Amino acid sequence: MNSCLVFWNPPDFDWVKLNVDGSRNPESGCISAGGVARNHLKQCLVGFALNKGSGSVLEAETWGLLGGLKLVWKAGFRKVVIESDSQSAVALINNDSSMNYPIFNIIQDCKFLLRSNWSCKVMHVYRESNKVASSLANLDHSLDLGTTIFEDPPLKIIGCLEHDFKGAISTRLVTSF
Q: What is the C-alpha radius of gyration for the chain, rounded to an integer number of angstroms?
């Protein structure tokens, strides 16, 4: 095993970075997602949390991507990097996907938005670089069904935001082959 250092990297000037994540409560089966858009100065621009009822982890992750895409499009951002810690969800959005896949409609809605008139790319990041989005996704298990938009960050995620703002580094253990 090796370790690598991981930290949240701000976007380039004139771009917005949106980190998204999905969550599933194992006891209730409830799924939620959340995300936050920040600029090159590491300032929060807008965030969201959504509660979708019950479903799978992958469904939560793809709802997070779709919710984030809708949020930044509606906010008028046209140069966006979206980061998710779900390799599976990112692969489904960036590649051809089967019509038989249970979440096909969510994936197609994401792809439709990605074809809009903007520069937008969806990328995978390690979970250690996605703590703010993870906190928002877990926060939503306590919210009503639907989507909540945040213009100011909820108090429960301030510590994660400060961690990223300071450029704090996390260690990740990586298996080498």
A: 15
Q: Mind listing the pLDDT tens digit for each residue in 92-135?
A: 999 876 666 678 899 999 999 999 999 999 999 988 888 888 98
Beta strands in the chain (DSSP E): 2-6, 16-24, 30-38, 44-54, 79-84, 119-124, 146-150, 170-174
Distance CA 121, CA 43 (A): 20
The confidence score (pLDDT) of residue 97 equals: 66
Query: Which amino acid appears at position 171 of this protein?
Result: T
Question: pLDDT > 90: what percent of the chain?
Answer: 60
Residue with tokens 């980190």: 19
Residue carrying structure tokens 């919210």: 143
* CB burial of residue 66 (10 Å; 0-12, 13-18, 19+): buried
Name which of 24, 76, 25, 75 is nearest 48 in CA terms. 75
C-alpha closest to that of 72 among 9, 119, 106, 32: 119
CB 49, CB 30: distance < 8 Å: no
What gap in Å lies between CA 20 and CA 85, rounded to an integer?
8
| pLDDT of 66 higher than 60 | yes
